[in-house]
Amino acid sequence: MEAGYVVVRSMIPPAELETLRSSVDAIVTRAPDAGRVTMTDWVDRQSAAAVELCFDDRVFDFSRQLMEAPDAAPLGMWVLCASGTGWHRDIHPHDMAPLDGLQEDIRLNGPPYVQWNIALIDDSYLRVMPGSHLRRNNADERQVERSQGVVPLPGAKTVDLAAGDGVVYINNILHCAESNGNEKRRTLHLGYQAFGGRGFTHFFLPATMGVHFIEHLSPWAAEKCVYFERLHAQRHDDVAADAARDRGGGRGRLDGGTGSDPPERARADDDAGRAVESRLSDSQIQRREAGGQRQRPLHPDYG
Ligand SMILES: O=C(O)CCC(=O)C(=O)O
């Protein structure tokens, strides 16, 4: 992962590719026309194969190991059907830690998040700038990032994926995507977050992928989703407790608070001692899903 990305050739054998293409085509047919479709919103029993691949060790455990984390959970499962985007890093300073800190954390503790493109049809959309995940933009890159579309940059590499190949990358790497002329794109686009590792939570979504779709999955996959939701729910609570502690007079005091919030602080102290194994009950998970309150998970690039 020194370059910030790794290509895994032939990770999907041809027979399985057929099944996955049918699964994804069925999902895309049901979804509104979009360049990026959230699979979990449109999956049904017949099309479950593509979603279940996300929990397969070829992708899931490979990601966990790359992140050097004891545990991991998917943050989103999309299929890319088109899309073109100029040079960018998946960072947004209004709700993330600064890039320098993220890069230092990656150097010391491994990436907190990895993202995959797994091609079900040949795909050479993605371009990356090797090594840029661990440095700031140079002068050329500063000129073009988020302003000039896909333009040539010295040192950039096109990631050529044959059907069945995947690429996993640290998504603060400088990257862009441009059509390769194929009418049809069917590329699984998956993100995994580290849990229980040494690194920080740099990126925190207001909503997780939920469990509204698990009735369509095989029991083993449904069970994993409930577990992943618990990890995410626990993280939400931990982040909320940290924020409450800060408001209550700890680090920052950005809101000029009075410094007195003992119940929250007591809870935060309790949280600090908890392992990542969640104690949330099923009913708590269900409450989060109830009443249409679930928000759609955003893509880390907010695309
Ligand atoms: O379409 C692609 O392969 C790239 C997607 C992308 O730029 C992103 O997810 O941030």
Strand residues, percent: 15-25%
Tell me about the largest β-sheet.
Answer: 6 strands, antiparallel
**Termini gap:** 25 Å
List ligands, each type once.
Answer: 2-oxoglutaric acid
CATH architecture: Sandwich
Computed over alpha carbons, the radius of gyration is 20 Å
Report the top-level CATH class.
Mainly Beta
Strand arrangement, major sheet:
1-8-5-10-3-2
Mean residue pLDDT: 84
Total helical elements = 9
Query: Could you say which overall geometry the principal axes of the C-alpha atoms support?
Result: globular
Structural class: alpha+beta
Instruction: Write out the CATH superfamily name.
Output: q2cbj1_9rhob like domain
Provide the number of structural domains.
1
Give helix and strand order, one letter per element, not per position.
EHEHHHEEHEEHEEEEHHH
What's the count of strands? 10
Residue runs with pLDDT of under 50 for 5 or more positions: 251-295
* Helix fraction bin: 25-40%
**CATH-assigned fold name:** Jelly Rolls
